[in-house]
Amino acid sequence: MKSAWLLLFLIAASAIHAQESSWAPTKDASKDAVLNGRATETFEAGVKPEWGYAGPQQDTFVVIHPKEDRKHAPLYVVLHSAGHDVMSCVNCTKTVGNHDIYRSPDDHYALYLDCRKNGSRDWWWGGMHVKDQGLTKKNSGGETMPVEKRVIDTVKWAIQKYGIDPNRVYLSGNSMGGSGTLGIGMRHGDVFAAIKANVPAGVEHVAHRMYFPPHSMPETAKLPEPPVCIDYSAPNDGWAEGHDRFVKAMNDRKYSLLFYWGPFGHANNSAQIMKVNDLIDSFDWLSVKKNAAYAVFTNANCNSKLPWPDDVKSTVSGQVNAFFRWKNISDSAEKFEMSLFLVSPSDLKTQFEIPKEATADVSLRRVQKFQLKAGEKFRWSYGAAKGEGQVDSQGVITIPAMKLTAEPVTLSVSK
After folding, report:
1. What does pTM read for this prediction?
2. By C-alpha distance, which of 309, 210, 215, 201 is closest to 250?
3. For strand 75-79 and strand 169-174, is the pairing parallel, antiparallel, or unpaired?
4. Average pLDDT value over all residues in the chain
């Protein structure tokens, strides 16, 4: 009898393994090309049953290699806008100024995904916007949709196939792809080190997936540490409605957000946007690593006044957390140290006035070795200032009202 049960178990296990390993993207060698001096490959792939699609479908994705071969390269992932498919998205990269966020650095691999071929059920944003009400109910809530699972598994496939550095994977997108970047990226900080959204077409997607108000976080929900998030949007862009709620939710959750805005509309040309707000590329988001701690700045006194919801006709550009920087020093089981400072005018030429001093609450995320449990107490020192604190219910260390200048000061936290 035991032998029979063992045989049944092995058969079932083999069937499950075959189902899980059956997803094998196939390369279309006829589409191999060189684009901007970089080798380009095109793949076709079906779907995994566990993604939950209603039926079979085929999707296309494109991989662009670094200009020079390198091991453990970073990966730059791109989600296209509603006006594009994967191939037209890739073609945009031939021309500077044409959806610049699609252009990956020459020393990165790049992965371009598609959602247009099966768009009636596959939009990145999941129909989470007032302008797309027909899909809102269908895709609402905290559960990830099939397209989101497809994105994550395709990224993991690329990491394995090309020997990508798993700690340097970045997600970007424009418009609908920007909404997908927020909604998919914020939910998967276990995959993405940092994310960047150019004029995201709605914040409803991320609000649902991250259980931002008015939604409630289930007690059983366990979300991974979020990535560093960069967003630039325009008050004169109807798709940007609700950014006041998004900024507040990110601040209240102590999530990292660098946010820039101005009257540049639903734009995608970086040079044109920078005439209005020259901060959009000021933070080196591609240097963030998933296996390294970062600082989150909240309740800062140097943030600009948001134009949402009551002043969307404003022509004044603004920023949230644009001038704060950090540098890791040490991370051990007993002690954590990080340098905090403001970017200096000599390092950042901008139309904005960089403050000489700013105050913000500072939280620590993705701390690797210095681990404290919720409710546990800690000591901290910052220059001449010293104090004690208590880890919050989410396990986050926060020191309130810290003063930063262009002169780096070491924050030290110990048990």
Report:
1. 0.93
2. 210
3. parallel
4. 92
